Amino acid sequence: MSTALEPAPKPARSLTGFYVAICVMVVLGLFGGWFWKTWTVWWFDADEAQRRQAEAAARLGLPVEKVVDLGDGVKLELVLIPAGRFRMGSPADKYRGDPEPLHWVVLTRPFYIGKHEVTQEAWEKVMGNNPSRCKGAKNPVERVSWDDCQEFLKKLNALTPTPLPRGEGQGVRARLPTEAEWEWACRAGTKTRFCSGDDDGGLAAYAWCEDNSGSMIHPVGAKKPNAWGLCDMHGNVPEWCGDWYGDDYYAKSPRYDPTGPAAGSCRVLRGGSWFEPPGQPTASWYRRPLPAANKGTLHVGSGLRVVVVPAGP
């Protein structure tokens, strides 16, 4: 008597492929998160800003802050800004037709920049004159042209003994900041309109502008510094940068260490002023053109702060 054959048992399905697929998904997720954070998230808080400063200073064997004595108690105070990468310009919802589109910028070298705008007493010590309209030894010098600034820097660099940390090439080379250096220094890790955030009201603690200046320029350093330790970036007097101004420059700017167009009819001014309301003119990204021989507008004279790029370790 024949009996029906029982079906053979099915082989156990291998779980190897399933586990491999899960592992691949986990790895891709981790890689995607790292990639997004590394290449998209560039902003950081005050603690991270100070950590980066300390790390750059240790690597160079230099202090985070450098005080330069020009004699008779007159000083320049410089702050070390680490290298880094950021999105320069204004976000789309704040663009408003201005030539400030967001674009990536990488600054490859740390640099010292003035903690404050150059004061009238420092200008007078170097130049022997004070062209400012609103006089005050600790007030920022104003009503100086881009050309005047070049003469100031030439004389500052010629001082003996060299008072500044050794810069590029032979000896010191104090200069104006590039636009990219200025904005990176102003933002101090923020992606908002101001180093204090997006709220107009919060700016009063960091800048002199129309709402709180009493229609006058004020001594440097009276307001809170940003996370790098820099004062008055958003308002007291506008500041010259070294770059030529170009309406379309951001669209073709090199990613690494941009220095502006090769030529132009105007130089760049950055930073708000005591005469302007909080908002667009005081934003980190705001830029304006001015001929190099111009000393500023009728009401708002232009000033400066210096930059020195120290030699590498």
Task: Give structural notes.
The protein is an alpha+beta fold. It has one domain (45-308): paralog of FGE (formylglycine-generating enzyme) (Alpha-Beta Complex), CATH 3.90.1580. It has 6 helices and 9 strands, in the order H-H-E-E-E-E-E-H-H-H-E-H-E-E-E. The chain has helices at residues 16-39, 46-60, 120-127, 146-158, 179-187, 249-252; strands at residues 65-71, 74-81, 84-88, 103-107, 111-114, 239-244, 267-270, 287-290, 307-308. The strands form 3 sheets. It has a 4-stranded antiparallel sheet with strand order 1-2-5-9. A 3-stranded antiparallel sheet has the order 6-7-8, with helices on one face. Strands 3-4 form a two-stranded antiparallel ribbon. The longest helix has 24 residues, at 16-39. The chain is globular, with a radius of gyration of 26 Å.
List keywords for this structure.
alpha+beta; about 15% strand; 6 helices; about 325 residues; paralog of FGE (formylglycine-generating enzyme); 3-stranded antiparallel beta sheet
CATH architecture: Alpha-Beta Complex
- What is Rg? 26 Å
Q: What would you call the structural class?
A: alpha+beta
CATH class: Alpha Beta
Listing every helix as H and every strand as E from the N terminus to the C terminus, the arrangement reads: HHEEEEEHHHEHEEE
Please outline the major beta sheet: 4 strands, antiparallel
What fold name stands as the CATH topology?
Answer: paralog of FGE (formylglycine-generating enzyme)
Compute the number of helices. 6
CA-to-CA gap between the ends? 96 Å
Query: What's the total number of strands?
Result: 9
Poorly predicted sequence stretches spanning 5 or more consecutive residues: 31-37
Total of domains: 1
Tell me the overall shape: globular
Oligomer: single chain
